[in-house]
Amino acid sequence: MAGWHTRDIADQRGRTAVVTGANSGIGLITARELARKGARVVLACRSEERGSRAEALIKGALPGSDVEFRRLDLGDLASVREFAAGYRDERLDLLINNAGVMALPQGRTADGFETQFGVNHLGHFALTGLLLPKLLGTPGARVVSVSSLVHAAADLDMGDLNSEHQYRRWIAYARSKTANLLFVHELARRLRAAGSGVVAAAAHPGYASTNLQTAGPRMEGRKSAERVMALGNRLLAQSATAGALPTLYAATAPGVRPDSFTGPGPFGWRGAPRPSWRAGWTRDDVAGERLWVASEQLTGVVYEGLAP
């Protein structure tokens, strides 16, 4: 794994990938590099304008690449169902659950969920479940969910998944990233119990310079906070290209283990992909089962064939 880079990505010709949030940042880099290696890539993005622009950008940089934008709003379960119903490709080799929001002011999704939990976890839970038959039918398929080291700031509160009792933007974000890791843990357990070869893994980018850091302050008009985040991006963060490496490694490298967590090393901040530390609560079987049951109830999406 030492020194692993995009040049080490294996040939992806004949494979199909869905990348959520592929219009910018880490998602755009991930989609571009998979397309560069020959994969057919579906850019699953909320904004038609930004998604179409990303499609044109990749095709312009990589003439002949097979890239297609399809609209997906993870904050609206009707949109998630519409996207999954419209997925006509015969196979799905890679589902990259990359899209996310961070430290936003308190809000609700179209279905009434706290925004960060709803978009970062529930939207991806529903999407993965609805696309599961395609994944199960594709030899060597993988699901990669993008979490964050910030997950260590907070375990889930199973009695208040939607932060109705108290809302603190960074704690809500941390809980949504804990949910990503618990989802991967429980999905890997259920796939193994079903005898499936689908690999569910997680990754995080360390501190990468993207628009994720400045979106929340910008929404609230907190100019000073936006400037601080932008300055941190310039002085401390690694590039979005470097931040995408752990995701690309988890998606394409040989021997990636189920329920693994890949990040930049050696300290999780920046560097080449390597196994990452994670909080013990993200490997809790009981918590994973409870979150799974709650997620099925909240979304109405049941993973057929994957029993507890």
Would you list the SSEs in sequence order as H and E? EHEHEHEHEHEHHHEEH
The number of domains: 1
Structural class: alpha/beta
Mean pLDDT: 91
Q: Which range best describes the helical content: under 10%, 10-25%, 25-40%, 40-55%, 55-70% or over 70%?
A: 40-55%
Tally of extended strands?
8
CATH topology: Rossmann fold
Which spans have pLDDT < 50 for at least 5 consecutive residues?
A: 213-219, 222-233
Strand order of the largest sheet: 3-2-1-4-5-6-7-8
Any idea what the shape is?
A: globular
Oligomeric state: single chain
Measured distance between first and last alpha carbons:
33 Å
Tell me the Rg in angstroms.
18 Å
Task: Give the count of helical stretches.
Answer: 9
Roughly what fraction of the amino acids lie in strands?
Answer: 5-15%
Q: What would a concise description of this structure say?
A:
With 308 residues, the protein is of the alpha/beta class.
Provide an overview of this structure.
There is one protein chain. The protein has one domain (6-206, 244-298): Rossmann fold. Helix content is 43%, strand content 12%. The chain is built from 9 helices and 8 strands. It has helices spanning 25-36, 48-61, 77-85, 115-136, 169-193, 212-220, 223-235, 240-252, 285-299, and strands at 16-20, 40-45, 67-71, 94-97, 142-146, 199-203, 261-264, 273-275. An 8-stranded mixed beta sheet has the order 3-2-1-4-5-6-7-8, with helices on both faces. The protein is globular. It starts with 15 loop residues before the first strand and ends in a 9-residue tail after the last helix.
